[in-house]
Amino acid sequence: MDRRKSVCIHESSHWTMGRFLGFPIKGIEINKNKETSETLGITLTGFSGPLPERKEKGTFWRNLEFQRYIQFDAAGLIGEYIFAGQDDFWMMNPKKLLMGSQDCSSLKQYAKEESIEKDEYQTLLESTANYLMLPTTWSFIIFLADRLLKTTGVYTLPDLERLQLSLTKQYDAGEFINWLVKELYSK
Q: Per the structure, how many domains does the chain have?
């Protein structure tokens, strides 16, 4: 299993989920060893997402904004797992070490502080995985990860949006939807 590709999948999954959820991510920075060109790490730029202020403990979970943060934080690990498969994922991410990672620490804090029911959390994480596994979403994650492997520097938001648009259909379904609703409700 290529650890560099796995790191790129992880960050591409965060970026893709973050953009879907409307987070203000400006780009992805590729950190490489200048002598060997080995990818050392990748970071999202322009996003430092402090959680919205909580009103009361336990009630904030119902807020869609909070659910977005959970999905964003979980997306990297879920994307990496989807890519690597069970055996390779656990080989690269030992369970004891994984729970100390930034993503898992945040997810654990959300579960503890917000008194989220286990089945609600499970459903939210499953919906995150389902979104990432959509063929068009997964194709873009793989495409972006491949690009990140070959690049040094920063992919800015306009670069990333151009890449995403090049892989998605450009047709607006609005006209069809208007026609369909009109037909469905005609007397």
A: 1
Cα gap 170→161, rounded to integer Å: 13
Q: Which of 9-13, 70-74, 75-79, 88-92 has the lowest mean pLDDT?
A: 88-92
* Both tokens assigned to 128: 């995150």
Q: How far apart are CA 184 and CA 172, in angstroms?
A: 20
What global pTM score does this model have? 0.72
Give the range of the structural domain holding residue 33, as residue numbers without chain letter: 3-184
pLDDT digits (tens, 9 = 90+) for 81-129: 899 888 888 888 777 778 788 888 888 887 776 667 778 888 888 999 9
- pLDDT at residue 78 greater than cutoff 80: yes
Helices (H), the chain: 3-21, 64-92, 95-98, 102-113, 118-132, 135-149, 157-167, 174-184
Which CATH number belongs to the domain containing residue 147 in this structure? 1.20.58
d(CA 74, CA 130): 12
